[in-house]
Design brief:
The chain is an all-alpha fold. The chain has one helix spanning 5-25.
């Protein structure tokens, strides 16, 4: 995992983007994060 930090950053960014979009579509679910 430490050998490929770019992959981790990509995963974190993708999860963050998905979470942001989900919170935008469903504000009540933003508290789950």
């Amino acid at each position: 995992m430490a050998q490929q930090p770019m992959m981790i950053i990509r995963k974190v960014m993708t999860i963050a983007i998905k979470g942001m979009r989900t919170s935008l579509y469903k504000p009540s679910n933003s508290q789950v994060m």
